Amino acid sequence: MAATLISWGFGHGWGTDLQAAGIAVIVIAFVKIRYVILDFMELRSAPLGMRVAAEAWCILVCATLVLLYGA
Amino acid sequence: MPEVGQLSHAANPAVERRVPGEAGIWIMIFGDMMVFSIMFAVFLFYRRADPALFESSRAHLNQTLGLINTFLLLTSSWFVAMAVQAARAHRARAAVIMFRLALACGVGFSLVKIAEYTQKVRAGIVINSNDFYMYYYMFTGIHFLHVLIGMGVLAFMAHYVADGKFSAIKVGHIESGASFWHMVDLLWIALFALLYLLR
To answer: Nearest residue on chain A to B78, judged by CA atoms?
Structure first.
């Protein structure tokens, strides 16, 4: 919830560096997504392969989006 | 001998590792997440071609409605997680209430989404207005379809848990339905960030 408010703040003109704020919005979204996957979907206690796949997905997609946005 | 079981359990925490729900639902969830990942990347790829157009269009979206919907889905995900806990503890009444509360959040999300679409269409903003709105309507529309399917699942679950008979298979079904709803929530988190917040 707090993370959502912070992202909303970045989307509303917090920070003077637009690009840094944009990258923060993407990264915060994926940190939240990771917690939904680990704690709500309970992959924290899933077989290791499944957990690694989920974590890898978060990192890979987040990194791709940051590069597409910021590079 | 439970002591022996407990000992081996303690010595090897990996024993506790398990897939929540059925394997089949996870193939569907991972597949869906792959498709959405490609959609996210496509959106940012085309955004690079005309960032000014995307930004001016984004500024016309209602961030407050998007924020309300994010809270509604996060809250409903929490209710669903509570419902699963209740089902595991064989507390049928609590599970029914939690699934109904989650469904109520889903209804709230839908009403906000419909109000938002109506606002846009009344302002003359439709799917072929420009590239940004094409992605906006397409992505949020496909996601909304997932919300509607998920609400059907939640309604079914509220009914399914009511009899209070919780076999391991039944709890597995409940976990599968719950996982689908959590996916609907996490996809919205990404859509909200990319479409509504990214300047």
So the answer is: A40
Q: Measuring CA to CA, how many Å separate A27 from each of A9, A60, B10, B23, B179? A: 14, 12, 36, 29, 23
- pLDDT of the residue at B88: 95
The number of domains in chain A is 1
**pTM of this prediction?**
0.90
- Alpha carbon distance B117, B134 (integer Å): 13
Which of helix, strand or coil describes residue B8? helix
CA distance B41 to B135: 12
Q: Is the ipTM of this complex over 0.85?
A: yes
- The C-alpha atoms of residue A52 and residue A44 are separated, in whole angstroms, by 10
- Helices B131-160, B92-122: axis angle to 10 degrees equals 160
B71-86 tens-digit pLDDT: 999 999 999 999 999 9
Q: Given A45, A61, A68, which is nearest B48 (Cβ)?
A: A68
pLDDT tens readout for residues A9-26? 555 556 567 788 899 999
Q: How confident is the model over B113-122, as pLDDT tens digits?
A: 999 999 999 9
Domain residues for the domain of A37 are 2-70
The residue of chain B with its CA nearest to that of A28 is B193
Interface of B with A in 163-192 (CB under 8 A): 175, 178-179, 182-183, 185-186, 189-190, 192
Q: Supply the pLDDT for residue A11.
A: 59
Q: What residue has token string 């379809």?
A: B145
Would you say B127 and B133 are in contact if contact means Cβ atoms under 8 Å apart? yes
A71 DSSP 8-state letter:
-
